[in-house]
Design brief:
This is TorF family putative porin. The protein is mostly beta strands. The protein has helices at 5-24, 26-31, 239-245; strands spanning 34-43, 47-48, 51-52, 59-68, 72-80, 90-101, 110-118, 128-138, 146-154, 164-174, 180-191, 203-214, 221-230, 248-256.
């Protein structure tokens, strides 16, 4: 059964309430070597690697992670989605992985590997799994900054049994003690053109450039305004289809807990 956006909004609030309850049990979790974290967000457009997943409409999103001191972790993330008529209305993704600090390397980057399962309840033909590997470098260029490099692979892109690779480079940096910061990213996606294409192409580039702000008065609350887009060919597309891939402004408000 498909869930409505309203129902998912209720689920987001429930997730936030659950986060408060989990925080109260933090001591019990830590005794087992476990830690809980999560977030809830509202965004003007859910963009995945530059392409809208909500037909350029707003989305509410939430996720949580349960991590062990060994480096193992598992969690789930969800958002409302819309791909047109008869499309699923919910994306609910479980994931599992392993994270560790590479102490032997001077900059001590964090290595993170795992499996992410893109899951659309009621539309199992769209479900697909992806392997990922990430390296995060802290204080790489400036105090408090972060460089993220990641590579992703699947042999079932968008549920059509197509091989696909994605690589991404991201950078975030605080602007001193102002609460403001900058976020930048560029990604490249390629897919088996015999089974899938991006308006005739087997690859595309996506990008993101924006400004963030962390609210000092509310712990874990942050805002982001970013320009997000792709170089996907738009000839022959409708206005709505062009909006889905062209550069647009996206505002997101996130509460971490």
């Amino acid at each position: 059964m498909k869930l409505s956006t309203q129902a998912f909004s209720v689920a987001v609030l429930s997730c936030m309430t659950a986060g408060t309850a989990m925080a109260a049990e933090d001591t019990a979790l830590s005794q087992m070597g476990l830690s809980f974290s999560g977030s809830a967000a509202a965004t003007s457009d859910y963009r995945f690697r530059g392409i809208t997943q909500t037909q350029s409409d707003p989305a509410v999103q939430a996720g949580f992670t349960l991590a062990h001191t060994s480096g193992l972790y598992a969690g789930a993330w969800g958002s409302n989605v819309s791909f047109g008529s008869d499309s699923p209305s919910l994306e609910l993704d479980p994931y599992i992985g392993y994270s560790t600090t590479l102490e032997a390397i001077g900059s001590k980057p964090v290595l993170d590997v795992g499996v992410w399962y893109y899951n659309y309840p009621g539309s199992s033909d769209l479900n697909w799994a992806e392997l990922y590997g990430k390296l995060t470098f802290k204080n790489a260029v400036a105090e408090g900054d972060s460089i993220l490099t990641n590579i992703n692979y699947t042999n079932d892109y968008a549920g059509v049994k197509a091989d696909s690779w994605n690589v991404n480079l991201g950078y975030s940096v605080p602007f001193g003690a102002t609460g403001f910061g900058g976020v930048f990213g560029v990604g490249y996606t390629t897919v088996d053109e015999d089974k899938y294409s991006f308006n005739g192409d087997d690859n595309y580039v996506d990008w993101k450039a924006g400004v963030t702000y962390g609210f000092k008065s509310v712990s874990g609350l942050s805002a982001e305004l970013a320009a997000i887009g792709t170089n996907t060919e738009t000839a022959g597309l409708t206005h709505a289809q062009k909006r889905a891939v062209e550069t647009g402004a996206v505002f997101t408000l996130t509460k971490a807990f």
